[in-house]
Queue: 3 jobs
Job 1
Amino acid sequence: MIELTIDGKKIKAKEGQTVLEAATDNKIYIPNLCYHPNLKPIAACRLCIVEIEKMRGFPTSCTTKVSDGMIVKTNTTELQKLRKNLIWLILSNYPKEIPTSSDLKKVVDYVGVNDILKNYTPKETNLPIYSDEPLFTRDLDKCILCGRCVRMCQEVRGVGAIGLINRGIDTFVGTTKDSELKDSGCKFCRACVEVCPSGALTDKEKEDAEEKNREEKLIPCKHGCPAHTDIPRYVRYIAEGRHSDSLAVIRSKFPFPYSLGLVCNHPCEEECSRTEINEAISIRELKRFVAERDDGSWKKKLKISKPTGKKVAIVGAGPSGLTAAWFLRLKGHDITVFEMLPKPGGMLKAGIPDYRLPPESLESEIKEITNIGVKLKCNKKINSADELFKDGFDAVYLAMGAPKGFSMGIEGEDDPRVLDGIETLRKINFGEDVKLKGDLGVVGGGNVAIDIARCSLRKGAKSVKIIYRRTHEEMPAYAHEVEDALDEGVELMLLTNPTRILKDKGKLKVECIKMELGKPDSSGRRRPVPIEGSEFILELDKLIFGIGQSCDAEGFGVELNKRGRVIVGEEVQETSQKGVFAGGDLVTGPQTVIWAVQGGRLAAISIDKYLGGDGEIDQILYPEDEADPYIGRDEGFADRPRAEVTKIPLKQRTPGFKQVELCLCEDDAVKEAQRCLKCQLRLKIKKTPLPPEKKKK
Amino acid sequence: MDKILVCVGTSGVSAGAEKVADNFEKSIKENKLDFRLVRVGDRGLFRDVLVDVIIDDKRITYEFVKPEDVKQIVSEHLIQNNPVEKLLAGEDYTNFFKSQERIVLKNCGEIDPEDIEEYIKTDGYKALEKAFKLKAEKIIEEMKNSGLRGRGGAGFSTGLKWQFARDAKGDEKYVICNADEGDPGAFMDRSILEGDPHAVIEGMTIAAYAIGATHGYIYCRAEYPLALKRLDIAMKQARKKGFLGENILKSGFDFDIIIKEGAGAFVCGEETALMASIEGRRGMPNPRPPFPAQKGLWEKPSNINNVETYANVRNIILKGADWFSSIGYKKSKGTKVFALAGKIKNTGLVEVPMGTKIRDILDGPGGGVLDKKIPIKAVQLGGPSGGCVPEKLFDTPIDYESITETGAIMGSGGMVVMDQKTCMVDVARYFLSFTVAESCGKCVPCRIGLKRMYEILETITEGKGTKEHLDFLSEMSDTIKKTALCGLGNTAPNPVLTTMKYYLDEYEAHIKDNQCPATVCTNLIKFEINEDKCVKCGQCFKACPVNAIEWKKKEYPILHKDKCIKCKSCISACKFMAIE
C-alpha cells in the first residue's frame, strides 16, 4: 500500500496504480477524455494534467505512477486555466453541436471553456459521415481523436480494422484505403462505439429502441428469446468446440433443447445483430446440433433441492406443463402431471408431425423429466381444481393449452368429409387411422394448415390445396415450411375463401369466393374482401379446417376472458382462484412452443414462491467463465454466409414421416457459431470516470 | 604515395564529384602516374567539387572543380607540379577552416569512408580496444567525467544516460543511434555518416559494451541513401575485421547493428516515436516516464543517442575525460557542430568549441554578412523548435544554458542567419507551418493549438491582425509549452515566443501601422519608392518582369501600381530597402 495526498486528502493506493486510478478509487475526479480503464494510457488529451510536488511541469495523472508521500494537486487555478484552454482547442475543431448525452459534453460542462479568442467559429471541415454501413454510424466531424476506438480495436480486440490516418491536424480515424468497414477486417463488435466519448461513433438504433434497456439493446438475441436463453454464451461454447458446455447453458433455461432445436420459431434470430451485415446466426440449428450430441454431462451440476413436502398438480403435459414440472421438481416439490391423452407432450406430440419432431426424441426429453421424479399420469382428464386440492395438492397449474379447433361456421360444414384440422393432426400423430386419400383442401395459412397439408401428402393424398383468403405474403406460417410444402407438391389457392358446402352426392363440392385485399385491419395486414359474383365450385374429397384453436377451461372456476382464455396476474401467474395458476396457450391463446415454455417457467417461479420458495428456478449447469475480449483478426469475417441446412431429397419424404431437415455437421456448426458478433463482450467494457453529477439546488 | 582527394559526399556528388573522380582515375592510368585517388566525404563547405592534390605531404586544394578541369590539373599539377592557379581554393575556404576546432568532423573529407583501413590509420577502433580492457563502470565514469551532453538537442549527460541503461534490469538491452536528422538545413549527422561512419559504429559498440547490450539499431532517414550505403559498407568491413558481430576483438562480447530506415517524419526524431517506428508502429511519441533506459525498444532498457554524440565517444575513451572537458565552456564540454545557413558568406558545417560566441562563428568561419549593405538582424538557432536570437545578444556564448536563456535552444545545431530583409512575423509563421505539418496529431495542444496559432500568424501577415491576436499567441504558446506531450510540441511555440519577445515592434507594425518593416508580407507592402533611401541605381527597374517600373539614369524610378503584380522582384533586387 502506498500513501499519498491528493488535494489535501490523504489516500491509500495500490503499488503500480496511476495517480488517476488512485484518485478515481477515492472519488476524486480528474478530467479526462482519452483515458479508459481497459486501455493503456496514452496521455493525448492532456486534460488529466496535475501538479505534483518535486516534479517538473504538469505530468499527466493517467501515466504517472503513485509513490509514497506524493503530494498531488488536481485543481489549481493554473490547471483550471490550462484545461479550459485545452477544451477551447477541442471545441475549436468541433464544428457541430455536442450530443447532450456524450461524455464530451459532460467534461466540457464540468471544466468550462476559456474564450481565448473571441468570436472564433470552428471552420467547416466537411468530413464525411459514414451512415450506410451496418450497425453504427461514423461522423468524423465529431471525432476528437482521443484514439479510444482505435486502441480498443487494436489492443483489446486484436482486430485493427480502424487506425489513425494522416497526421497532425489532418489526422482522422479511418479504415485501410478508406474501404468499407467489413473489408477492413471489422468484426462489428462495436467496442469502438462503446468507448467513443464525443458522439462520433453511434449505434444505429432500431425503431423500438426507446422501450428497451441497455442490455436488451446490446444483446438482442438473448432478449428476443422469451426465456432469455444465454445465446451469446452457448454459441460461443460451440465456436470453442465445447458442445456439452453449450447444451448445459441451454438446459439451464428449459428441458426441451432438442425439440426447440427442431421446431422453435427462433425469435432470437429475427433480432440477431448480424442480420444487419448479412444473415442472422442460425441459432436454432446450433441448438439442435448440441442437443443431438447430448452426452448427459449437464446432469453433473443439476441440483434437486431437498423435499419441501409440498405437492403440485399440473394439468396438461405440454411444453408449458412439463417445463413447470421440471423446474418445480428441481425446487424440491412433489409433482404430478395429469394428461388426458394417452401420451405426454401436448402440442409437441399432437400438433407437430413426426417429420419435424421425431417421437422418440420428444420421448427421451420427457424421460429426463420423469427421471428426476416427476409423476406423469396419462389418460387422466381433470375437470376441476377443487378435486385436486381435495387430493392433497397444495397448488395447481393449469396448462391444458388450446386444443380445440375452430370451425368456419359455414353452411354444410357438418358434412362428415369436412374435418377439424388440429383433431386430424392429433390423430395422425397418435397413429390413429385417418383416411386422407384423394383431392384434399386445407383452409388456413398458418402452421397447422401447412402441417396438415404436408401430412396429407405423406398419408397418400393425390393432391392438396391450401385455401387461404389473403396472399402468400400474409401467410402466418413459417416461410421455410411453406416453401417445403410447395416443394413437396402442395398447391396454394390464394385470395380464396370457402363460403358453403353443397349438399350433393359424389365429390365434396365446396363453393369458394375470390377475395381481394382491402384496407389494413387491426393486425396490420390488409383485410381480405370478397369479390361479388366470383363464386366457383371446388370439387374435393375432403376439406380440413386449419384456421385456429381455442381453449377449454370451463369448469375450473377461474376467471376467463372473452375468448375463453384464463386471466392471470401481470406479475404472478395466479388465476382468480387462490393456489390455481395458469400459463402457456391457455393464457396466451395458440402461441409458439418457446412462449409455452416461458409460460411454464413463469408459473414455476410463481408457484415456488407461493409455496414458500425463493422463485430462483434457473440452474447454473455450465462453467462460469468470461469470453476472451481478444477476438483477433479473421479475414472475410463479415461476408461469411449463414450455414445452410441440408434437407432429405423430395423422393424420400413421401410417403412416410422421415425427418426432413438434417443436423449441421460439426465443422459447419463451429463455423456458424464463429460468425457470431459477440455483442455480449461490449457489456464487459468498463466505464470511464465521469464528472460528478451536479447536485440540484 | 602521393594522393588526390575528391570530396564525394551528397553535396559533392550533386555537383559532379563522381565524374571528377572518374576522370582523375582514368587520367592517372593513362599517364601511368603514381597517385592514389581517394574518394572522401564532404567537408561541410559548399564549394561544388573540392579536390586536394597532395604531393610530398604538401596539400593544394582546388574548389569548384568541373570534370573538364581534370585534364588541366593532371597535366599541369600532377605531371609538372605546377598548381592550376585559377582553380585554387580562395581565402574564404581557408578562413572557414581556420577558426574551427574539428574533432567530430576531423575525418570527414579526409579519409575514404568506404575503406576501413583508412579509418584504422586514424587510430580507428583503438578506443574500442581500450574500452574492452576497462570495466564497464569505468567507461561510464569516464563518459560522465567528460561532461559530454546529448548532441541531439536536449543536452542530457551521456554518461548518466548510459548509467541508467546499465543499471536497468533486462535480459536484453538495446543501443540505438538516432540518425533521423530532421531539422531543415541541418546535415551534420549526414556528413558524419557519409564521411566517417566507423566513428559512429565504434561509439555505439563502446556504448553497447558499457550498458550490456548485444543489439543495436541505427534509425536513419531513407532520404540519406549515401549515408545508408556507406554505413552498410562500413558495418560489413567492421564485421570482417572483427570489430562488430560475435566475439568482438576476441573479447567474448557480441554486438551487432541493424539499420532501420525512417520514412521522413520529423517527429520520429523524438526518441519514443523513433522506437515506436522501429517496432513497426505509427511514429507517435509516448509519455515519459517510463524513460527508454527503463522501458525502451520492445519494452527493454535502451540507450538512445544521436550520431554526433556517438561520434564523440572514441576521442573521449582514447584521449580521456580530462582532455575532452578541457575543451568547452561551463557545463557544456567539447565541441558542437553547427549548420550555418542563410545570409552569411560561408554556409556549411562549422565545428567550434562550446562557449564560442555567436558573433565569432558568424565573423570567423562564417566570413561575415553576405551583403554588407544589409545588416544581420538575428540568428535562428535550434531548427523549427528553436528561437531567434537578436543581434544585440550575439555575444552570447554557445552553450546549452546560455542559449536556453535567450529563449532559443541548442537543438541539433541549426544556425540560420537572417538579415534586415527578413520579417520576423513571417519567420514565426514559416516555422509554425513546419511544426503544424510535422505534428504527429496525438495530443490536443500540438495538433490543434499549433494550427490555430498558425492561422493567427497568417492573419497578421495578411494585415488583418488585432491586438487580441497577440494576446492569443502568448496565451496559446504558454498552454502548448506547458501541456504538449513531447518535445516537438513543447518547443514548437519558441519561434513565436522569441520573435514576440525581441521583435514585438514588428508585430505591432503589422497590426497597428499595417506595415511589414522588412517588406516581406505582400499584403502590407505599398509598393512605393522611398526616395530618402533610394540611390537611383536602377536595380529594381532591371528586376521587374512586367515593366511596371520606369527609370532613367540618375533619376528616381517610378513604380506603376496598375502594372505591378506584387512579385517582389524589385524588393529582392534593392539593396537599400527603398521599396516599401
Job 2
Amino acid sequence: MTLPARIRSWLDATLLRSRMEREMDAELRLHMEHHAERLILGGVSAQEAHRQARLEFGGFEQTKEACRDARGAGLLEDLLRDLSFGLRMMRKNPWFSAVAVMTLALGIGATTAAFSLVNAVLRALPYKDPQNLVFLYEPNDHIPNLPARSVFTVQCRLLRPETTKRIVCRPRSIHDRRYEPALGAQRSSVMRMVLKQGAALAVTGVGIGLVAASSLTRLMANLLFEVKPTDTESFVGAAVLFCAVALTACCVPARRATKVDPMVSLRYE
Amino acid sequence: MSEKMELLQGTLDLLILKAVSLGPLHGYGILLRIQQISKERLQIQQGSLYPDLYRLGHQGLITSEWGESDNKRKARYYRLTPAGKRQLHSEEERWNQMAGLMADILRTTPGEL
C-alpha cells in the first residue's frame, strides 16, 4: 500500500512539478490568510494581523523547501541542478577542465591498459590445473636445437609459451627420485622469471607514463600556481611506487608458479 | 501548568494522524483542532505542519483532495487512508506503553528497590 503511494507521490512531484508548486504556494498562503482572519476577528488591525500571521508561520521559502524534500521532489531536480552547475564551471575554465579530464582519461587508460596486459599474460590457460602443464621430451639426434643426449630435459610450460623456462637436471631415469629436489632447486629461478616479466611491464608503463606526465605537468605549470614542469621528487616517487606495486602484484602468480609440483606435472603427461 | 509546552520530537506526526482521523481537515484546520484538543497548551510552529503533512502523504498514510473551505475558498482537505488508520492504532499503542513505562520508572521510590 505505502510503496506504490510513495512512488506515485514521487512521480507526481517530479513530473507535475509546476502544478505541485502552484498548489503548495496556494495552500501555504491560505493558511496565513486563515490565521490573519482569525486574528482580525480577535480585534487586531488588518495590517498587524497579516504581519503576525507571517511571523507565526515561520520561513515561507524554508517551509516550501522542506515540503519538496518531504515528497522526494528534490532528488532529480538537485541532480540536474548540480550537473548544470558543474558544466557551467567547466565552461568557465576550459583549460583547467581539459587538463583534469585528460589526467583522468590518461590515468584510467593507463591503468586499464596495464591491467588488460597483465590479465592477458598471466591469465590461466583454459585447461584443468593449467599450472601443471609441462612439455616433456627426450633428446633426439634427428631434431636440432635439443639439448645433448645425456641431458634429460623437462621443459616446464608455465602458463604460456613465452614464460617457458627450461629446468635442466641429470637424473638416471625418470623414476629417479633425485630429480625432484633438483627441480625444487629451481624455485628461485622460476620466481625470478615471472618477476622479470612483471618488471618489464612496469618499466614500460612507467616510461610511457613519465613521458606523458612530463608533457602534462609542463601544461599544468602554465595554468597552476607552484607547479614546476619537472618535479623530480614526485616523478621518482611515482615511478618507484608504480614499480613496487607492479612487482608486489607479480609476486602472487610468481609464488604460485614455484609451487608447481613436478611429480604431479609429470604424471599428467 | 499554564505555560505552553514544546512538542516532543516525532510527536507531530501522531497528532496530525489523530486530528485527521476525527474528520477531513485542511492544514489550518488541523492546527486549530490540535490546539483545541490540547486546550491550547501545545506550542506548534505553524509552518512545520506542512512538511509533516507532505511526508505523511508521501508515505500513503493520509490523502488529500481539493475542496471548498467555509469562506468559499479552495483548500486542500486531508483524510486518513486505511494504512494511516493502522499506523495511528499501532502508534497509539506504542505511545501508551511508553508513557506507562516512563511513569512507572519515575514513580519508583528508594524503598521499592
Job 3
Amino acid sequence: MVLLRFSIRHPRLIVGLAALLTLLSCLAIPQIQLRLDARALIPQGDPKMRESDAASGIFGLNDMVVIGIDGGQEGIFRPENLKLLQELSRDLARTEGILPESVISLATVPRLNLEGDSLDLRPLLDRGEVADAAMAQRLRRETSQVGLDDGVLVTRDARAAAIYAEVDRAADRSHIGSRILALVSRYRDRGLPLYVSGNVMAQAVLGETSARDLAWLVPVVIVVLVAVMSLVFAHPIPALASLLEVGVSLFWTMGLMGLRGESVFVTTLTLPVVLIVIGVTDDAYALNRFCVEARRHPDRPIAETVLVAFSFVSPALRVTAAATIGGLLSLAAVKLEPQRVFGLYGALSVFFSTLFTFTLLPALLVLIKPRLRSGDSRFTRIAEGSLRALVIALGRGWAWKVLAAVALLALPAGLLAASRLRIEDSWVGNLPDASEIVRGDREINRLLAGTNTLDLLFDSGVRDGFLDPGRLSALGVIEDRLASSPMVGATVSPYGDVVRVCAALAGVDYRAYREQLRRGERSLTRPEIEQAVMMLASVSRAPSAQRLDEEGRRSHLTVFIRAGNYSRVRDVLALASRPESPVIGSRPVPFGDGWISYLTVHSLVLGEVRSIVLAIAFDLLLTLVVFRSLGASLMSVLPVAVSVLLVLGTLAAMDIPLGTANSMFACIALGIGIDYAINVVAQYRVNLRRGEPRYAALLKAYIMTGPAVITSAIAIISGFMVLALSSVPPNRVLGILVCFAMALCAGLTLLLVPSCVLLRKENV
Amino acid sequence: MRISGRIALAALVVTIGLAAAAARSAAPPAAVPEGLRLVNEYNQRNFGSPGWRRVYLELKSGAKVTRSFTILHLWRIVDDEVPSLVVLEQPAGLRGTSYLLVEDPQAPAEMRLALRLPAGERRVLTITPGRFEEGLLGSDFAYSDLRWRLPTTGFRLTVAGKSRLLGREVWMVDAEPSTPQAAQSTSWARVRYYLSREPAILLGADFHRNPTGAPFKQLRVESTARVGQAWTQTRMVMSLAGGRSSVLTLKDVGPLPESIGTDLFVPEMLGTVAERANGWVADRLLRREGP
C-alpha cells in the first residue's frame, strides 16, 4: 500500500525509473543464449546421466546427422548415383561444424574385401576414379559380401543409401542445420530424392521454427490481448497500460537472465508468450475494479479512483501472485535446465509484474487519466446479471447437483489419467508436418535402418573381456535378438565387426559366416578376435573403430530404431537388458543421442507431473496460511485441481500422450487458475467479516469479483489461443490445453465455490 | 701533409677496405636451404643399416596406458630400397603378426607393404597401394610415419623457418602434395617436419588435415641416442587432441648380423620369421652381438 500511494503521488518518477531500468535491462538481453542440443536440457553431473556421460566419453560419441539417398527402382549402384554419394560425402565432410573424420558412407568406409592375397582398404569410391558401371556392380557385390547392405549404409535391395556425420559439440546447431539443408538442396538438382534427418537437424529446425514463431506470436498475443481487454473494459487505455507494465517486467526478467548468462531452451521458447498472458491476468482484476470505480464515480479524482480500486484488490492479488509464483517455482523443483529457467524466471517475471501492478500501472493510469464513460459497461452489466442468476439457482438446490456432476466427471477422469495416460515424444515429432526434416525422417525410416539410435555400453568388468569368445558371442546373441524386433532397423556391435573381418579374411560371405557361427559349425578363437580387433583399430574410419574401448573391456552396441520415440527407446532398452547380461558382466548402460532424448522426455514429463503435486500442496498451504481455514483452502484449490484432472482424463481418453511441451500446461494452469477461486473466496470472507449474512456475502463477493474472473479467463484464453496458431505442434497443443484448463477452471470456480459455500452449515 | 703521409693514409684506407671486403666474403649471410635439399640430406643420412631394434609401443588415453606391444624391427638397405621387417612379440594373442614395409622410391606412395596375420587363414596379405596411414596396431603411428626416408615425389617441400626442439636447432619443412597422385596417396593436406641437420635426425612432425588449421596429430621426439655412427630416436610421442597418444620407446638396438641376409626381407618369408620370431631371429641377434 505504501508503494501504491507513493506511485500515485509520484507517477513520473516511477515511470522514469522503470524506463531507465528497462533500458539497462535491454543491454544484458543479448547475453541470453539459445541452446538447441538435447544434452543441455539435463544438468551436467546429473546422477541419471553420469554413467551415460562416461560412456559417451569413452566412445567419443557425438550427435549425428543422417542424409538418405533414394536411388529409386534402378537403385543406388548406378555410376551417377554413386558419384552423387561420393561428392555429397566429401562436401559434408567439408561442412563447417561437421567432424570431417566422422563422415561414414559407402564412399568412406574402409574396404575389407580381399582380392586374392591383396588387401586395399581404400574405399572404391575414394580412389580418385570416376565410378563406371563395372565399378558400381563390383561395389554392390562387395558391399553385400561383407554384409554392409543391412540398411545402415545401404539397403538390402540396394535402393537407398545413407551418409552419417557427427556434429562438433561446440558448433552452433542452427547454423549447421542451415548449412546441411543448403548442401542437400544443391545436390537435389541431380534428380535423386535426398532426405535429411537426425536429432541434430530436428533440434536445429525446431529452434529456428520456434524462434520464428516467437517473432510473430508475441505481437499477435499483444494485439489480441489489447483487443479483448479493450472490448471488456470498453476502453483501450487500461489494456495498453497493462501490456506496457507486463512488457517492462518481461524486459527486466530477460535482462536478469542475460546478466546471469542463462540460456533459453528449445522446449521452453514460448516463455515470453506465457509470461505476457500470465502478467495481464493479474492486472485484469485491478483494472476491472478500476473501470467499475471510474464509471460509478466519474467525478472522483483519478488518483483517488486508482487508490480505491487497487487497494480493493490488493489483498487477493498478493495471494494470487504468491500462488502463481509458487506454481512456477514448482517447475524449478524439477531440476531440469529448461524447467528451472522457465520456473525461476517465470516466477521472477510474475513478481515484477505484481510489483508493477501496484506501482507502474497506477502511475500510468494517473498520468494518462483515461476518460471512461459513466455507468457500468455492457459487459459488467451482463456478467453481474448472469452471476446473480447463477447464485440464485445454486441456492435453490442446484448446488448438490453441481457437486455430484463434477464428482461424476472427475472420478473417471482420475481413473483414466492414472491408468491410460502415456508419455510420448520425439524431436522430429515436435516439428511441423510440412518440415523437410519430418518428411526426410519419414522416408529414411521407411527406406533405411532408421534415424534414431540407442547406444548401449556393455562392461565385461575385466581387461580384454570382450576378446573372450564367450562374452563376444553373448553380445552377438543380444544383437540378433534386437535385430529381430520390428522396431529395430539394424544393430552394429563389435561382434558383427569381428565376424565381418574374419569372414573377409576367410573369403566367405559375411552372412553365411555368421550363420555358421550361430549354428556352431564355426567358432571364433581368441587369436582371431584379437587379430580382427587389431585390424579394426588400425583402420581409420572403420565403422567399428570406436566400438570396443582401448582396454577391450567395454563394448558399444548401436541400435538403429525405426521411427524412434520415447516408447520405442524404452522397449528396445528392455529388450537389450534381458538374459545375456550375466555372461557379459553387467547390465547395459544406455547413452548417446537416443538415450538423452528418452531421458529428457522422461525427466521432463515425470518431473512436471510431480510438480503438479508440489503446486497443489503449495496452493493448499498458501491458502491455509492466508485464510486460516481448511474449508476455504480446499474450496480455493478444488476448482483448479479438478480442471487439471479433467484435462488429464480427456488426454487419456483421446489417447493424446504427454510430451515435453504439453505437460507444462498443468503447472501453468495451477499457477494462474487458482487466482479465480482466491479472489472470490477472499472477497466472500471480507464480506463475512463486515458482518454480512452468508448468502449476501457470497452474492456480493460473486458480483464484485465474478466479472474480473470472467475478464481474466477471457484474456488468458484468447492469449493462449494464439499459441494454437503456432507452427510447432507441441506449442499448439500446449496453448489448447491451457485454454481448455482455464476455461474449465473459470467455470468450475464460478460453480463450485458458491456450491460449497451454500452446502456448508457453517461459515468458512 | 707530406707525400709520405698521404701515401700512408691511402695505404691505410685501402688496407681497411680490403680487410672489410675480405671479411664479407669470409662470412657470407647464412643461405636458406631448399626444402628438397634438406629432406634429401636427411634421407641420405646413416641410419645404421643393416640394423635391428626392439621397441615398446604404448597406447595411452591421458596418463593411462591402455595397451602395449613389444615389436622387433629389422632393416637393411637393398639397392635403393629400404625393407623393414616388423614382428610383433607381445601381447601373446597377437604374437606372430608381422609386416614387411619396403620403402621403394619407384612404388606408388614410395612404399610397399605385406602383412601376415597369424590367426585363422594365416595369410600373407599384400596391402595394395593405399595411404598407408592406417594406425599401426591401432596406435596413432601410421605405417608411413615409421619410414626411414621421407617421401619427396609429388610433394612440394618448402622451408617454413627455423625452430628449436629437444635443445637443437631444427629446420621446419612443409610437405604438401603437388600432384593428384601424391594427394591421393596421403590424407594430410600438409605435414611439417622438424629436421635437425647436425646430427641428421627427425625431431618432430605436425600432421594437418587442413593446410591452415591446427595439426590433427603431432609427433615429438623426446630423446635421442647415438648408436655407432647413426643417431636414433629413443622415445617418440604421437599425440592427438583429447589426450590420446602413442609412445614408442627404444629398448634394444644393434647392427644386423651379416648372416641375416636380404633373403629374409621378402613377403614369402613373413610366415617363417613370424613363427620363429622369439626363437631364431631374436636369439641369434641377442646371443651373438647384442647392442
